[in-house]
Amino acid sequence: MSPEFDLIARCFTRATKNTLLGVGDDAALIRPSAGHELAVSTDMLVEGIHFLADTDPEDLGWKTLAVNLSDMAAMGATPRWATLGAVLPEPTFAWVEAFAKGFFACADAHGVDLVGGDTTRGPRAFSVTILGEVPAGQALRRDGAKLGDSVWVSGTPGRAALGLAHLQGKIALSEPRLSDCLAALHRPQPRVALGLALRGLASAAIDVSDGLLADLGHILKRSQCGARLHIPNLPPPGMERDALLAGGDDYELVFTAPANRDADITTLGHPLGLPLTRIGEIVASGLILCDDAGKDITPARRGYDHFDH
Length: 309
Hints:
Layout: H1 3-11, E1 36-46, H2 57-75, E2 78-88, H3 93-110, E3 113-121, E4 125-135, E5 150-154, H4 159-167, H5 177-186, H6 192-197, E6 204-207, H7 212-223, E7 226-229, H8 239-246, E8 253-257, H9 262-272, E9 276-283, E10 287-290, E11 296-297
């Protein structure tokens, strides 16, 4: 057996739960549930751009899948199947085994089967394609926001960006905040349960990968509307505010919903153990950020641009 196939067999081949034919053939065979549509998404992580060279491989394995699960959450889809493409420099079994351990820990937490992929030699990078199911006509989309809808965000955006800034020596965090921010960076928790619960409630949704303002902007563009934001406890200008508004890598959900469902959404967060915060409302045009006194604020930047680095 070649080193490549030996690595796949030892680290990435195991029994599947939702799949007719998984790893080991020319293609996987899957059977979607009756009455459901397939949601499909692909994300790539590249060393030096999306993760640091010394990132723990087990954490990296978790995150490689988690960022794709976040896309399923934003669509209100139940994740089912994934493929993994891995580009590796001189792979060591111990490193790949640790990566696979983290990847499968995330997969097991969300009922995902790894059904195929590929490996090759080169600068370290990973690409996952994930497939999920959503009842026909019930997917959350970016183009459904309506005038007067409330704008919501889950969790606490900005923590991952602060963790990265600490590792880069730009700021110095102390415990327990340091551990919290590093956990957000290395082990993001995709909001799959929230996405499922928002079916029939949210009018539009997106996950926060490139920054709160940038990703909300995608909803506004697709829905042909604007938003006025009044973010509670907005930090003063500086790293904290930049992380909250433009940091990205949070994988929280930003979503809109009719204002008459505000109470339902507030209640929704309790059984999920997840804070859901109303941060504004949909208006006719523009993206306006206001402070507590109602004065307009111009943020230093809007978010991450993959081709501006």
